[in-house]
Amino acid sequence: MIAEFRVLTFITFFPLVGMLATAFVPRQQVRWIRAITVGVTLVQLALAIYIWANFNGSLAGINDPKSFQFVERLPWIRLSGLGVFGNLTIDYFMGLDGLSVTMVLLTAIIAAVGAIASFSIQRNIKGYFLMYLLLDIGIMGTFCALDFFLFYIFWELMLLPMYFLIGIWGGARREYAAMKFFLYTLLGSIFMLLVMIGLYFSNEVMLLIPGTHEVLRNPMTHRPELYHTFSMLRMMDPRAFVAGSIFSGAGTAWRYAGFFGLFFAFAVKIPMVPFHTWLPDAHVEAPTAISVILAGVLLKMGAYGILRLSLGIFPEIAVALSWYMAMFGFINIVYGALCAMAQSDFKRLIAYSSISHMGYVLLGIASLNAQGMLGAVFQMFNHGIVTAMLFLLVGVLYDRTQTRGVLEFGGLANQMPRYFALVVIAFFAALGLPAFSMFLSEAFVFLGSFQTWQTWTIASAVGMILTAAYFLLTLQRMFFGTVPERWNQLTDVTPRELVSLVPLAAIVIAVGIYPGPIVDLMTTSVNALVSIVHTNAPLTKAALLP
Amino acid sequence: MDQLILLSLVALGLPLLVFLLVIFNQRALADRAHLIALPAMAFSSALACYVAWIKVRTPGLLAIEWSADWIRFGNVPGLGPLVIRHSILLDNMTAILLVVVTGVSLLVHVFSIGYMRKDTRYARYFAFLGLFTFAMLGVVLAGNLFQLYMFWELVGFSSYSLIAHWYERHGPQYASKKAFIVNRIGDAFFFIGILLLFSEFRTFEFREIFGYIEQGLPLSFSMLGLAPETTLTIAGLLIFCGAVAKSAQFPLHVWLPDAMEGPTPVSALIHAATMVAAGVYLMARLFPILTGNAMLIVALTGAFTSVLAATIAITQRDIKRVLAYSTVSQLGLMIMSIGSGAVAAGFFHLVTHAVFKACLFLGAGSVIHAMHRALHDLHDHETDAQDIHNMGGLFRRMPVTGWTYLVATLAITGLPLTAGFLSKDEILAGSMAYGGLQQGIALAIPWIGLAVTLLTALYMWRQVFLVFFGNPARPAVQEKIRESPYVMTVPLVALAVFCVWFWFGRNPLSAEHGWFLSKWVKTPASVVPPQTAPPFRPAGYVPPPQEFASQPFGAAITPPQEGAHVWELPPMPHQVALERARVANTGMAEGAALGSALAGFLFAFVLFVWRPSWSASLRRAFRPFYNASQRGWYLDAIYDFIVVDTVMLTARVTAWFDRRILDGFVNLAARATVLLAHITGWFDKYVIDGIVTLTGATVQFLGLMARSVQTGRVQTYLAWVVAAVVVALVVLRFALFHS
Questions:
Q1: Which of A121, A375, A432, B671 has a CB 3.0–4.6 Å from the CB of A364, allowing a cystine?
Q2: What totals of helices (H) and strands (E) does chain A contain, helices first?
Q3: What is the pLDDT confidence band of residue A542, given thresholds at 50, 70 and 90?
Q4: What is the dihedral of CA B675, B678, B682, B683, to 10 degrees?
Q5: In sequence order, what are the residues at sequence separation of 6 or more whose Cβ sits closer than 8 angstroms to the Cβ of residue B463?
Q6: Which of B566, B584, B531 is nearest to B211 (CA)?
Q7: Could you say which of A481, A515, A546 has the minimum Cβ distance to residue B79?
Q8: Alpha-carbon distance B289 to B526, whole Å?
């Protein structure tokens, strides 16, 4: 049934249809251009909901191709007889498991919300929406791809539109910010590319003749032909590595180098302190919708990469270095919170709070047990929703006042009561109040990491206090007191803004009270990932597992 | 599902329903919000009364439990299935608190109709009262630590929202933020305590945690490498940190006096009767896992807090701040009581305190309301309506408020025929027993208890004399004072009625055989390993062999059985000893308590009625102490200096480091790359390309040279040919000659 309906191809490449349609609409027809993008993202959202409804939470995925869902696998590039390069196969290999399904859902939600928020763009609207749809393809594809080469292509594909979206439609220092973002990410990608090529040479598979169970053989020798592959699942099998190849063995210097290369690429994306400085600039300069996408989804690509690739492919290194990973998680949490506390620019403040919250993801991954990793994956989803809401709220105010200075406001609670209510929901969700989704994921992270790294977890608890402090301080500064003269004409949120904000608020509360529909998607996969990491990490003491 | 559980869930849900209905219809409801809130609260409290009545009247029904899976972690590697559950635990303590919470909440709702009339955010106010009641009932009903923590935080949130009710003013803004953050500090430790218990026992359920610990501490139970016994002490103290913040114990008590910036009925409900008592409830609930050392620290913290707050209360001028410090002091007594092993007494005092302190706060609200009206009529906007030195002689003008205030004062100062007398006696008897058995520093605890009793009488009677009796400080204001409307006086009368002894037992002089202590509430049995229990035993007690202590945690251990097993354990030896000593001390405690309460009354009478000039000269003589006491021993200033300023400075330094150093490094790398590119470009242009150009130029030069030969004139060519021939001949000549 699912094989007939190629839902992943559809959800990934449907924006292409929108791009084509947009290309044929005259640039003056702004309404049509907007409508096409909103329509496309709504179709994507419908598809994501279809996936969510049909996803079987009891199948693990991770390294077992049979338990992936919505799988599409077609040979894409096959070359043989390349001399020292051997034979090459690249597959169009897409599929979902518990790690990626929530990310696909998140991407669809955030893309739709971002499309609505993009209505405030005034310049070169056609170009903007073309880029927006291209970005959408790149992100969605990254989460669906199971072939490393394909993953890399989507990963890089996302960079280009992002560069233009910040660089053309951004704020005053847009060129600087766009360049910084592009180059920083590209630097990471280069390391990823090198490791990917190394992994390619370390893996060989036999291929079947399409439609049969016959193995492809060399026409001369009639021996089975071995192909190098980019399949991620294959790379997660430590016995499959070609003997004597660069990444074979366990705990070798090359494998450490490989882990570092991959990890750096993802750490930039998360972003992990000290590789985070591109983020505040990119956020402050990017238009609202792009900030929403950036914080809501793009950062998760880094964490997703660590979970899927760094842990899966180099488990023994990940286990050996998990103490440091937990330390960096702690640094992210506390450093981000401290920086946020000192900001007077509303958007910069939210950007640093994002850094702080992504620290929980790192800490959860470093725990290497089911509760912590579940917390990490869950936090990725929750943070996506909450931070999207926060950036939308910043945008609402910026659209009206053209300023983001926290200290310039006051008394907005009475001036914009609906806006105030939404801000309260978003702030208290972000500071981890129970009944909001982020409390649960942060609690899970702590539950897991306390069992593995007591000291870092106890130290990270300081983040709970600091986060409360800077959000409440901001609330007091901007919303309590009396309205300054210059802002007493400000209007409350419009229906269009409500359309994008209210669903997010509803998700935050619904998931916080009844997390089953999201958590049940990922538990099996997370548990499988944990046991794979621990069984495939022979070098280290098994004591890490509870 | 048990019928009682179902009914208490309905009682829990109704206030939430009120919140949702009102918060989304604020504009439509406006000043009619109480029409939804009041009936719902009345129904909820009727249900609570029914549940509690059935519960406490049914013998042998120690605890009713219900749970349902909430979050499933699946089949966790190395552990097997793991779930977080919704669970409800309904024992007598819970049942009684259900009545207290819903009852006080109902009366506060009624009072608020009068007090909050004409408020601009009337509907919002009732919505958050509903949310608070829901969250507080959730804390009380929670059957596991995770759920308790969630409601615990929600209680903090609703408290924040209500303190910030008048957020236009600076005071409430600051106070609400402070309350939330100070509570967060305690909660962070509380949460670590929960993590510590969870990481060993893989459960949040009270029954299971108690059951596991009762079977012996596993060796793997360790925090930061400490021994299991020490870790258990730490776990108890970490959880106590939550109570320290919520119940305003030293050093985190500083938020509560500031929280008085909220509306007065809110102070009565949240910051006197119920929420601040949640910490006491938490400690009573988790008392079974408190080790001897943990008990001592808890008792000392409570004792210190109670005397500290009492010394501050005697000099406060604001009627609400006196009551706030009084609350801190009384909460200290309760915590002290739980620490000294008299859990039932501490819980008893929680209940009686909820009643008389709510009565006092609502009475204060009634006075403030009347003062506001009087000042408003006089067009006086300067006078502070809450300063007790602006009042005086109000008793005749407001008889109902005056009488009820008097009854509640009798109760809090612990004079006979009141409920406060009974509960305070129990606490003092318990602390005497504990001090005598524990020895050492614990000997100070009963003395502190007596000192606090004296101070309580002093500051309460000071307040009563200054507010209700004596000569009016402002006769013009006093003339205009009128009694509050019925919606405000009826709750006062209702609460005053409950300040009397007979609700808790037949004998007005001892609660010992009254139904509250003999039938309803008992000190739970401790489950800590014997070697960590307090070091005293009843006479003639033979200790059991120690071999089962510290067994490894493994397959041998069985999960605690279903049912009420943990609640039915016999008391441990030290508890037996404590109980015997307490009974022996009851008479002495009664006498001492009565004596110090009367002494406090006499002091107050002398200083504020008989010889008011003496109080002024006392104040002059002890000026520095007086000032320090009035400013809460400067703790706020110290915290501002040490904690707040340090954190803000760290934040600024971090942000500077981020902008200038880290990002500076990135920018430097970028600039270095650009510089390198320039150098490369220069090198390329002048060196690499220079070589190319040079090569070309050389060729060109040679070409130029060669070209000069190509003149096109035959004579020149001939000359060249001749020259060449000559050269060739010469060369050949020499070559041949040599050969």
A1: A375
A2: 22, 4
A3: very low
A4: 60
A5: B319, B322, B388, B409
A6: B566
A7: A546
A8: 6
Predicted confidence band of residue A541 (pLDDT cuts 50, 70, 90):
very low
Neighbouring residues of A541: CB distance < 8 A, sequence distance ≥ 6: none
Percentages of chain B per state (helix, strand, coil), in multiples of 5: 75, 5, 20
B558 touches chain A (CB under 8 A): no
C-alpha–C-alpha distance, residues B295 and B287, integer Å: 9
User: Tokens 């999960």 label which residue?
Assistant: B559
**Rounded distance between C-alpha atoms, residue A51 and residue A517, angstroms:** 13
* Residues B510 and B424 sit within 8 Å (Cβ to Cβ): no
Closest Cα of chain B to A155: distance in Å?
A: 23
pLDDT at A540: 46
Helix, strand, coil percentages in chain A from 3-state DSSP, rounded to 5: 70, 5, 20
Which tokens hold the place of A481?
């007191």
> Looking at beta carbons, which residues of chain B come within 8 Å of A465?
181, 184-185, 188
Q: SS3 of B62, please?
A: coil
- pLDDT by residue (tens digit) across A67-117? 899 988 888 888 876 666 678 888 899 999 999 999 999 999 999 999 999
Number of CB pairs < 8 Å for A and B?
Answer: 147
Task: For B607-646, write each residue's pLDDT tens digit.
Answer: 888 888 888 898 888 998 988 888 889 998 999 898 899 9
d(CA B573, CA B536): 8
Hey, which residues does A78 pair with through a beta bridge?
Answer: A89
- Give CA A365 to chain center in angstroms: 14
Sign of CA dihedral B706, B712, B713, B718: positive
Cα→Cα distances B600→A90, A443, B456, Å? 89, 49, 7
List, as one string, the DSSP characters of A263-325: HHHHHHHTTPTTS-THHHHHHHHS-HHHHHHIIIIIHHHHHHHIIIIIHHHSHHHHHHTHHHH
Helix or strand or coil: residue B66?
Answer: strand
- DSSP class per residue in B560-586: PPSSSGGGGPPPPHHHHHHHHHHHHHH
Would the ipTM clear 0.90, i.e. be above it?
Answer: yes
Which chain A residues contact residue B196 at CB under 8 A? 450
How many other CB atoms are there within 10 angstroms of residue B225's CB atom?
A: 8
Q: Burial letters for A217-237: b for 16+ Cβ neighbours within 10 Å, e otherwise?
A: eeeeeeeebbbbbbbbbbbbe
Which of A458, A478, A534 is the best residue to mutate to test the B interface, defined by the most B CB atoms within 10 Å of its own CB? A458
Q: How many CB atoms lie within 10 A of CB B732?
A: 10
CA-CA-CA-CA dihedral for B183, B188, B189, B192, to nearest 10 = 150
Whether A465 sits inside 8 A of B181 (CB atoms) is yes
Distance CA B83, CA B204 (A): 10
Distance CA A158, CA A186 (A): 11
**Phi, psi of B67, deg, nearest 5:** -150, 155
0.95 surpassed by pTM: no
Confidence band of B654 (pLDDT split at 50, 70, 90): very high
- To which residue do tokens 């990471």 refer? A188
Half-sphere exposure of B438 (CA within 13 A, CB side): 29
Q: Mind listing the pLDDT tens digit for each residue in B673-718?
A: 999 999 999 998 899 988 999 999 999 999 988 888 777 888 888 9
Between β-strands A226-229 and B63-76, what pairing exists: parallel, antiparallel or unpaired?
Answer: unpaired
Q: Which of B73, B154, B192 sits opposite A374 (nearest CB)?
A: B73
Please, which residues bridge with residue B91 across strands?
A: B63
